[in-house]
């Protein structure tokens, strides 16, 4: 266990500037094209007029999940069936009808960092576009998982990567106050950084969490726990 002083530093890092919006696959490799047909690119418009991007994943033909901290002035479009962002052939662009941030989301601590996007149209399910199942409370604690995204890599500098990258991660205890209540954690150089926020933490064939943040000084990667919100997710998707 970490000493009390280190725990305090970790908690401060999580709630202050060291916790950055996540998203660069470090130590990974290019994914096999369309081997993750649930992956989506989420386009967001910022208040300063810029267009930026987050990751996300398809839950149902008409619902995508991403990170709540990805919310900009508006979430406009999701792009499905992408492998290479510079070659958007046979992809589907669908506008966002409505956003549903989790009611418990805290922008200071990244707790409950979950956002549902209701799409204007149903996606056409194909070999390169299909949803992925969410783990439920009964599915237990995962250990060996993977994450993927188009965020910056070691070789892309300040730019997003053109192709989908993936990396395996091993989960362990979140050694800061209430960490395991809200997050899954992995440590070490390999994992996430800037640009992949909202992408799924896949363990087996199910999503257990999503890319939320990284405490850079300690190389701690944070994934929002989705299992905690199964009833909320079902209610939104069934009522809309």
Automatic annotation (TrEMBL):
Biological-process GO terms, alphabetical: proteolysis
Coiled coil: none
Superkingdom of the organism of origin: Eukaryota
SUPFAM superfamilies recorded: Trypsin-like serine proteases
Protein localization: Secreted, Extracellular space
Record's signal peptide: 1-22
InterPro entries in the record: Peptidase_S1_PA, Peptidase_S1_PA_chymotrypsin, Peptidase_S1A, Trypsin_dom, TRYPSIN_HIS, TRYPSIN_SER
UniProt-listed CDD domains: Tryp_SPc
EC id: 3.4.21.4
An example Gene Ontology molecular-function term: serine-type endopeptidase activity
One cellular-component annotation, GO: extracellular region
All residue ranges annotated as the Peptidase S1 domain in the record: 25-238
This protein's UniProt keywords: Disulfide bond, Hydrolase, Protease, Serine protease, Signal, Zymogen
One Pfam short name: Trypsin
Catalytic activity: Preferential cleavage: Arg-|-Xaa, Lys-|-Xaa
Main location: secreted
Protein name: trypsin
């Amino acid at each position: 266990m970490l000493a009390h002083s280190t725990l305090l530093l970790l908690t401060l890092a999580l709630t202050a500037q060291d916790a950055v919006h996540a998203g660069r696959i470090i130590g990974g490799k290019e994914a096999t094209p369309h081997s993750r047909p649930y992956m989506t690119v989420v386009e967001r418009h910022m208040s300063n007029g810029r267009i930026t991007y987050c990751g996300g994943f398809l839950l149902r033909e008409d619902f995508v999940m991403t990170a709540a901290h990805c919310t900009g002035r508006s979430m406009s479009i999701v792009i499905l069936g992408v492998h290479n962002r510079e070659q958007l052939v046979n992809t589907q662009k669908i506008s966002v009808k409505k956003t549903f941030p989790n009611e418990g989301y805290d922008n200071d601590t990244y707790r409950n960092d979950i956002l549902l996007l209701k799409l204007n149209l149903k996606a056409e399910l194909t070999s390169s576009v299909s949803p992925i199942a969410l783990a439920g409370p009964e599915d237990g604690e995962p250990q060996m998982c993977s994450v993927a995204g188009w965020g910056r890599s070691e070789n892309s500098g300040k730019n997003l990567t053109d192709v989908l990258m993936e990396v395996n991660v091993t989960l362990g205890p979140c050694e800061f106050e209430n960490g395991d209540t809200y997050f899954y954690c992995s440590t070490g150089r390999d994992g996430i950084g800037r640009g992949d926020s909202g992408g799924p933490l896949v363990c087996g064939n199910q999503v257990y969490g999503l890319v939320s943040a990284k405490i850079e000084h300690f190389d701690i990667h944070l994934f929002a726990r989705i299992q905690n919100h199964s009833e909320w997710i079902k209610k939104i998707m069934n009522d809309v």
